[in-house]
TrEMBL record:
Name this protein carries in UniProt: PucR family transcriptional regulator
Family of this protein: Belongs to the CdaR family.
Domain PucR C-terminal helix-turn-helix, residue spans: 299-354
InterPro entries linked to this entry: CdaR-like_regulators, CdaR_GGDEF, PucR_C-HTH_dom, PucR_C-HTH_sf
Source organism per UniProt: Streptomyces palmae
Length: 368
């Protein structure tokens, strides 16, 4: 008891309880068990572990056992055995009640901590809190927002939540390799988000590698997008939004890449900055393709495949799963209908830009 580190008041009434049980042989009453549960909660809230608390009660039981009146007065072996059984049942019930209270307090503390963590993450990723208060709260969760950070966002074949196998595995691997300082892993809107200090950039590369490796039949990640590094609390929001925008662009353009970097996609915000001008370019350059028998879709797909293949017809035809002859026919139709020739560098650039704009605007499925 001396080395337990728990104040004696946590034994409140326990010796008296053992004394009474040794004399009466009764079971513990509900009120007594509730009082023990409350003691267990108080011990947990005071920062005392369940092992310490259990050791305190067992030490007290051992100290008082030989002097309990019910045992002292037992004149026969049978009476002694009955008293022993009653006391052991009481000790077992008492320890169980203490454990229930202690665990209940811990669960409540964990729920409060998780709620606080979720509120912090929401405020951090949406920039909704006072910067000074946000910085102070960040230190509690291992982030120093005065430094530069970058954000990576993983989008899976199925939505991610905090108990998803991929999330648990990635968290386990990252903590084992890098620890939990200046790294924050969370889920948001069905995606997996990793925030890392710029000095820990390799954390994000490992994050992308771990999320892309399915385990135990769980679905892997479809894409991972990296925002750029920015400083301060507002920098985390900006990097997060860049990563989300990169995922959105990849989905709209059906990009084949599984790892995307916002720094590589800066041309797209420029293209969309003047939506009206882009719509005018698409309508003017590609609008005539709608006169084709199959509509503009196949010819637009042909332009995209040729650009991706570096205008190597055999490779473009392979990607489109058509013959080179069919590809040549389509290119001739594009030249005839639009007046733009892919063999001319400037006209090819205009066609490619218009085709990219069409994909960004959802044309021809959506009217301009």
């Amino acid at each position: 008891m001396k080395g337990s580190g728990i104040p004696p008041e946590f034994l409140d009434g326990y010796t008296e309880l053992l004394t009474e049980v040794s004399l009466s042989g009764r079971l513990l009453r509900r009120a007594e068990l509730d009082a023990l549960r409350a003691l267990g909660e108080r011990a947990a809230e005071a920062g005392h572990g369940l092992r310490e608390l259990t050791a305190l009660y067992l030490d007290e039981t051992r100290r008082t056992w030989g002097s309990l009146p019910g045992l002292v007065r037992a004149s026969t072996a049978a009476q002694r055995a009955r008293a022993d059984d009653s006391l052991l049942a009481a000790v077992n019930a008492a320890i169980g009640a203490l454990g229930e209270g202690h665990e209940r307090a811990q669960r409540l503390a964990m729920r409060k901590e998780e709620t606080a963590r979720r509120e912090f993450i929401d405020d951090l990723l949406y920039g909704r809190s006072d910067v000074g208060r946000l910085v102070a709260r960040a230190e509690r969760f291992g982030l120093r927002l005065a430094r530069s950070h970058a954000v990576a966002v993983a989008e899976g074949e199925e939505p991610y939540d905090d108990v998803h196998p991929v999330v648990r595995r990635v968290e386990r691997e990252l903590i084992a390799r890098f620890g939990d300082h200046d790294v924050l892993l969370t889920t948001k809107d069905g995606r997996l988000v990793c925030i890392a200090a710029s000095s820990e950039r390799n954390v994000l590369d490992a994050f992308a590698a771990y999320t892309g490796s399915p385990e135990g039949g769980s679905a892997g990640t479809r894409r991972v997008a990296f925002g750029r590094e920015h400083s301060g609390a507002g920098g985390v929001v900006r990097s997060y939004e860049e990563a989300l925008a990169a995922l959105e662009l990849a989905n709209r353009l059906d990009l084949p890449e599984t790892v995307l970097r916002a720094s590589d996609l800066l041309v797209f915000p420029v293209l969309l900055r003047d939506r009206a001008a882009m719509a005018d370019l698409v309508q003017t350059v590609l609008g005539p393709l709608t006169a084709s028998r199959g509509g503009a879709g196949p010819l637009l797909e042909t332009l995209t495949a040729c650009a991706a293949a570096g205008y190597v017809n055999a490779e473009a035809a392979r990607r489109l799963k058509i013959s080179v002859r069919t590809l040549s026919y389509r290119l001739e139709r594009i030249r005839t209908l639009t007046g733009y020739d892919t063999d001319d560098a400037l006209q090819r650039f205009t066609l490619e830009t218009a085709a990219m704009g069409a994909r960004l605007l959802g044309w021809p499925e959506k009217p301009l």
